[in-house]
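Colleagues,

For the teaching module next term, I've prepared a clean inverse folding example: a structure given as tokens, and then the sequence designed for it. I'd like students to try predicting residues themselves before seeing the answer, so please don't circulate the second half yet.
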């Protein structure tokens, strides 16, 4: 296959096809191991695995033992009774199912130094691929006959699951001795090579330096590489223009890995991607991940340190370049003649054409040079060229758009689109050309991934054009609206232009309005204020929500439109919007409306109740002055209870002198809704006065409606003074005559964390003629009480019910006892803990044991948690599932305190 014609203008033609020969090199194993069972040297624990090694020297041999202690995870080296070395093997709980194997060999025929290698490997009895294999190596140097210096030089481990490093003794092929090799068994992308080729680099131990050094077998690739020569381009390079074709992973230099550093060419007209400056060129390489969506047909290279003439002199180009790909292809690239800094700046680099297109997922590069010389060298840039790259941005964008146009696979389109990042204006021109040459009504949809590569300012007009061609039911339609709403003001203008072309009856009109509201585009929504009241009900609601999303900046325009309103629906929608903005910004609005006269006019002239109610709701968020007089003199005395209630609500922020008298008078209104609204407003206003308290207490003494009574009690409970204290004492003193009022008063005090009256609650619990639910509520409230009296009441209930024989009414007593245990658990009563634990273990009823368990879990105590966990094995079968759930829920709270009563005790009325 050849596709170089597409880039001939860039690279200058093709070359002949490439043939690659693959040769496999096999290392030979070396060993003069002498190992046998140590039966003649017992005395060690049977748990040890032992292997013997004979070390030869002039005049005889010495035997040492390698011992594996599985439980201790240690490998010992012993000579008779002397321990020479001990190595910890971490990573496994036990090495019981591991074997020990050792090898030893001289480093060369002329050296008396030796390398000792040991392997601790899992047997077939070891479960799973995660079991580790350990390798340890020592360097042995003779000191005198029979005496050796031991130096541990390496220790590695690996597994089939996680990979790692391993050691091996192998024949190098260059000496008669053995090499200690260290290699990485984890498959990765550190070096790009074919699957059947040998590893790119091995680390071998060099005894003279006492360190591992990288042994790059570059000759293997050079012998099979196809020779290419870089050439000067005919015109100065302006590309490649496609991006995201590749991404550098790392640069390796003498086993040190670092990020690839970006630089620029001297005239700063070409971005660069890679720069290296090694002392020894043969020990450096870099690897990049490459997209496979398009093939590579060549590369652009800027050799040398090209940031300045001085840098170019200090960091000269390497002598040549070795390049390999994942399919096994290798290229050896030479530079053109007269490679100077001036020529590089003039041409902006050199280009190389491949003999055939290469579709690869990675690419590795090695700068080659004279290692003995050790000169500084650099590559400033190397970039793959694809068939999409052309001499200009416009031509490249056109090729990319045409390629996407001919592709039906969505995944391929997304990958192609990433190549176009950075083309911006050129991409827009190419897309315009596609639209102009197509008769299709929706030609842009396949190019949506390409549009997403543009900046928001450029992309949003295209997104709106795409929206115009999509059906409302299409998944991309809603997704595109969300994208436009996220982008903000840059999307407002194209959306507004589209809105002006839509009919008000078109469902998409409401969709665009909703998106403009999500953006909060003020200028785009001002015209919509004049359109209030028009369209379907759904459209009107959408328009109001959009206006409200802008909020305070549109308040003035909304009040102005009240003067201009020609029909009630327009006025109604404006008032609804004002009310919604007020609710959204309550407490932060100006004291007076922007146009109080307009609001007063609405309240005085409204002919329909619905419009009047909307006006009152809008007025409630302001400190009324002119409009307040209208409310006080006319609307508070209306025959319509809905109007009276709305008028009371509108006095929430009013500051006139007579407001309090109107609110207090409303406490005697015939309508319970009006009375409740008056109570609520009195509770919300900050200027509470003595007459307010007197009026509320007077209301409570004659109240018969529980909802109003509860709200008034909440207000009183929040005011801690002698008047309220006296009233609550009166209520608790009559607990037996008015139990429900007593319970509501206790709940109100608990909600504001004031102490209730345990005596009154205990009196309700003891009232056997009272409804059982009232007595249960009283017990629950005692769980929020903090006095000793309240705790004693609960203890008496639990202990008395536990010893009482079954008789008539025992069911009610059981319910009270169960509720009392939960209340004691909420209080975290130390005195009751053992009693509840006893009820859990010995209770006669299953329901009693369940309540005891729930009561214990409320303690959130570490000791209780431990006891419950230990009791799981003894728990009855009917409790085990509940016990497991409670333990899981308790685990998160054992360290936290739950002594504070919750702010809301309304939930205590329901049985747990």
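(Answer key — instructors only)
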């Amino acid at each position: 296959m050849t596709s170089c014609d597409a880039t001939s203008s860039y690279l200058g033609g093709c070359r002949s096809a490439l043939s690659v020969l693959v040769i496999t090199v096999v290392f030979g194993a070396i060993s003069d191991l002498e190992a046998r069972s140590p039966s003649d040297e017992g005395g060690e624990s049977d748990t040890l695995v032992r292997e013997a090694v004979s070390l030869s020297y002039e005049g005889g041999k010495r035997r040492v033992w390698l011992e594996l202690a599985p439980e201790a995870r240690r490998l010992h080296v012993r000579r008779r009774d002397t321990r020479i070395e001990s190595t910890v093997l971490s990573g496994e709980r036990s090495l019981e199912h591991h074997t020990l194997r050792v090898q030893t060999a001289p480093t060369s025929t002329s050296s008396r130094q030796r390398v000792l290698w040991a392997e601790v490997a899992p047997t077939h009895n070891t479960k799973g691929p995660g079991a580790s294999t350990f390798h340890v190596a020592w360097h042995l140097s003779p000191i005198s006959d029979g005496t050796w210096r031991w130096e541990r030089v390496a220790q590695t481990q690996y597994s089939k699951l996680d990979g790692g490093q391993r050691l091996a003794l192998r024949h190098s092929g260059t000496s008669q001795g053995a090499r200690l090799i260290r290699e990485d068994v984890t498959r990765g992308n550190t070096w790009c090579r074919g699957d059947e080729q040998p590893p790119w680099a091995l680390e071998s131990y060099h005894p003279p330096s006492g360190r591992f050094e990288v042994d790059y077998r570059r000759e293997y690739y050079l012998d099979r590489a196809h020779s290419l020569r870089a050439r000067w381009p005919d015109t100065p390079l302006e590309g490649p223009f496609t991006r995201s074709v590749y991404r550098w992973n790392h640069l390796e230099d003498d086993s040190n890995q670092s990020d690839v550093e970006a630089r620029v060419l001297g005239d700063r007209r070409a971005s660069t991607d890679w720069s290296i400056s090694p002392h020894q060129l043969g020990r450096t390489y870099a690897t990049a991940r490459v997209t496979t969506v398009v093939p590579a047909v060549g590369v652009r290279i800027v050799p040398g340190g090209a940031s300045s003439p001085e840098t170019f002199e200090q960091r000269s180009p390497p002598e040549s370049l070795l390049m390999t790909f994942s399919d096994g292809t290798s290229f050896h690239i030479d530079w053109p003649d007269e490679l100077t800094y001036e020529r590089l700046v003039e041409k902006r680099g050199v280009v190389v054409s491949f003999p055939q297109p290469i579709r690869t997922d990675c690419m590795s590069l090695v700068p080659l040079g004279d290692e003995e010389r050790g000169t500084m060298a650099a590559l400033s840039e190397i970039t793959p060229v694809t068939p999409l790259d052309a001499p200009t941005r416009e031509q490249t964008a056109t090729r990319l758009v045409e390629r996407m146009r001919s592709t039906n696979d969505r995944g391929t389109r997304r990958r192609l689109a990433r190549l176009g990042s950075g083309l911006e204006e050129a991409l827009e021109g190419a897309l315009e050309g596609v639209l102009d040459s197509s008769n299709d009504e929706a030609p842009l949809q396949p190019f949506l991934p390409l549009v997403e590569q543009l900046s928001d300012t450029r992309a949003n007009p295209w997104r709106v054009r795409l929206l115009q061609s999509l059906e409302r039911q299409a998944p991309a339609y809603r997704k595109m609206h969300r994208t436009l709403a996220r982008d903000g003001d840059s999307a407002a203008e194209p959306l507004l232009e589209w809105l002006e072309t839509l009919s008000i009856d078109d469902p998409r009109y409401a969709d665009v309005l909703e998106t403009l509201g999500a953006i909060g585009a003020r200028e785009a929504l001002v015209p919509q204020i004049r359109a209030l009241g028009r369209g379907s009900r759904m459209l009107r609601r959408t328009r109001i929500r959009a206006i409200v999303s802008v909020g305070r900046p549109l308040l003035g325009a909304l009040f102005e439109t009240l003067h201009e309103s020609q029909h009630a629906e327009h006025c109604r929608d404006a008032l609804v919007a004002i009310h919604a903005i007020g609710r959204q910004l309550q407490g932060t609005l100006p004291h007076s409306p922007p146009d109080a006269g307009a609001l007063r006019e609405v309240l005085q002239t409204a002919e329909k109740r619905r419009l009047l109610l909307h006006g009152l709701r809008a007025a409630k968020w302001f400190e009324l002055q002119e409009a307040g007089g209208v409310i006080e003199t006319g609307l508070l005395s209306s025959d319509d209870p809905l109007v009276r209630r709305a008028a009371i609500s509108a006095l929430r922020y009013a500051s006139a002198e007579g407001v309090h008298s109107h609110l207090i008078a409303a406490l005697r209104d015939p309508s319970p809704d009006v009375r409740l609204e008056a109570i609520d407003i009195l509770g919300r206003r900050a200027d509470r006065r003595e007459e307010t308290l007197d009026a509320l207490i007077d209301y409570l003494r004659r109240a018969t409606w529980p909802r109003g009574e509860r709200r008034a009690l909440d207000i009183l409970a929040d005011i801690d003074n002698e008047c309220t204290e006296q009233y609550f004492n009166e209520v608790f003193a009559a607990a037996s005559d008015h139990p429900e009022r007593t319970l509501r008063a206790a709940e109100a005090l608990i909600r504001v964390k004031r102490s209730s009256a345990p005596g009154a609650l205990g009196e309700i619990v003891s009232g056997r003629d009272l409804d059982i639910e009232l007595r249960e509520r009283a017990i629950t409230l005692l769980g929020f009480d903090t006095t000793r009296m309240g705790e004693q009441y609960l203890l008496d209930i639990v202990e008395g019910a536990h010893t009482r024989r079954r008789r008539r009414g025992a069911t009610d007593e059981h319910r009270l006892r169960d509720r009392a245990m939960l209340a004691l658990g909420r209080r975290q009563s130390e005195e009751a803990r053992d009693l509840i634990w006893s009820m859990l273990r010995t209770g006669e009823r299953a329901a009693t044991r369940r309540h005891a368990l729930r009561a214990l879990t409320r303690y959130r105590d570490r000791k209780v948690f431990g006891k419950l966990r230990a009791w799981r094995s003894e728990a009855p079968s009917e409790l085990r599932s509940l016990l497991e759930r409670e333990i899981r829920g308790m685990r998160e709270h054992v360290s936290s305190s739950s002594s504070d009563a919750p702010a809301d005790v309304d939930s205590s009325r329901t049985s747990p």
